[in-house]
Design brief:
By secondary structure, the protein is α+β, with helices and mostly antiparallel strands. Helices cover 29% and strands 38% of the residues. The longest helix is centred in the C-terminal third of the chain and has 15 residues.
Length: 82
């Protein structure tokens, strides 16, 4: 199954994540199909950027997002609707 999930990047105690489309069997920081954006939880304000068009494409193809990625996509949609 194809998943949309976070891939860990950044230094120790300074997490940064990339939003990626990957096979569910691959490791967290391993191989991925496509990178959709990023998420920096320690940054204040605008801390995420996701290509919603590509995320919608993958969702229509049957990819399942993680809970965190689903909330990030929803926030990005609200931000772009304003």
């Amino acid at each position: 199954m194809v998943r949309i999930r976070l891939k860990r990047a950044g230094a120790k105690n300074q997490p940064a994540y990339r939003v990626v489309v990957t096979d569910s069997r691959s490791p967290r920081d391993g191989r991925f199909i496509e990178e959709l954006g990023y998420y920096e939880p320690l940054k204040a304000g605008n801390n995420a950027k996701i290509n919603v068009e590509r995320a919608d494409y993958w969702l229509k193809c049957g990819a399942k997002p993680s809970f965190t990625v689903a909330s990030l996509i929803a926030k990005e949609r609200r931000k772009s609707a304003q």
